[in-house]
Amino acid sequence: MSQSVRALPIHRLLGAMAAAAFVPVSVAWAQTDGDALTIVSWGGVYQKSQREAYFKPFMQETDVAIEEDTYPGDFDEVIEQVESGNVTWDVVDVTLSDAIRGCEGGYLEPIPPTILSPSPDGTPAMDDFLPNTLHECAIGTILWSTLWAYNKGAFEGEAPDSVEDVFDVDAFPGVRGMRKTPRNNLEWALMADGVAPQDVYAELRTDDGVDRAFDKLETIRDDIRWWEDGEKPQEWLENGEVSISTAYNGRVFNSIIKQGKNFEYIWDGQMWDIDLWVIPRGADNLASALEFIAFSTGTRPLAEATEYVAYAPSRKSSLPLVRREYQSHMPTAPSNFRNALQNNFIWWSENKERMDERFDAWLGEGG
């Protein structure tokens, strides 16, 4: 297994490859004589989109049983399974930084690009997938973002529409919901302190920049309520426990479009990322796992997932199949993408442990 999956140009990466929790919720979707394929994702409306667009159609086509689990995105659970030799998960949905971390550490199976189907017009997969969505041990499915959202009823006059507004508790009072992690929060703190998105990671590469980010977070420490479950932001916004919160764009979409909630996006400074399928090293059902990944990353399944959640598909050929009225709710819509920042997966793969320790210590300082 290669020990590097740096963000090489796709043609070089594929060419090299060709040469060489919390308590899980389980749902069985089919019964066969073989072992069930265990697929792990993040729960909520996102996993529902996968269930409807990927799991059920795949099961109907192949008669392979699928058992679903959920997890909070802690890749250490994959590492523990591999190191213990007790791998119970076959396919796991991860972010790009964890895909890189897992592949470099030898915790993931390589996924040959030859399993991927071309687009309907014959375009090879390596040309149809968006940049940075194909990697040695991971195949991208969606582009999503973490952003800020608010309950319109929380503000009688002017409403917040920027990251700077979110950190201005005098002009826009109320509790802020934030995921209990340094990732994204450090970037937003710097943006709120005047750093342009394109300069954020240059700033974080310095000790002074990291200090600056934590100092800015300190200015709203007393106004933060921390969440870990991705359903909490919507719940808290609805019942008024917070007035503004970070949230996953697809879940905000579901609240607005599917449930009629009085929420609004703040697209400014959205932090976008890619989710990918990976296979833990030593998974029992490797052949079925590869078959599932090839199926679920086809043009039509990726497009059909947008019927349930507004995450942009990783294939270019899927975009024309997305319902027109949903396109403005996607992070890649031109009006939403103007001031966006991609999560720097290389920086986070190199600095996650150090930032986690600093963040935990900072939380502890607050008593």
What does this molecule look like?
This protein is an alpha/beta fold. The chain folds into two domains: 10-143 and 273-329, Periplasmic binding protein-like II (D-Maltodextrin-Binding Protein, domain 2, 3-Layer(aba) Sandwich); 146-272 and 338-365, Periplasmic binding protein-like II (D-Maltodextrin-Binding Protein, domain 2). Helix content is 37%, strand content 18%. The protein contains 14 helices and twelve strands. Strands 1, 2, 3, 4, 5, 6, 7, 8, 9, 10, 11 and 12 form a twelve-stranded mixed beta sheet that branches. α4 packs across α14 (345-365) and α7 (185-192) crosses α9 (207-218). The protein is globular, with a radius of gyration of 20 Å. The N and C termini lie far apart (45 Å). The model is unreliable at 1-33 (pLDDT under 50).
Approximately how much beta-strand content do the residues carry? 15-25%
Share of residues in helices: 25-40%
User: What oligomeric state do these chains adopt?
Assistant: single chain
- Beta strands, count: 12
Mean pLDDT: 89
Q: Please identify the structural class as seen in this structure.
A: alpha/beta
Rg, Å, rounded: 20 Å
| CATH homologous superfamily grouping of the largest domain | Periplasmic binding protein-like II
Largest sheet: 12 strands, mixed
Report the total helices: 14
What's the CATH architecture of the largest domain? 3-Layer(aba) Sandwich
What is the 3D form?
A: globular
Structurally, how many domains make up the residues?
Answer: 2
List keywords for this structure.
D-Maltodextrin-Binding Protein, domain 2, 367 residues, 12-stranded mixed β-sheet, alpha/beta, 37% helix, disordered N terminus, 2 domains
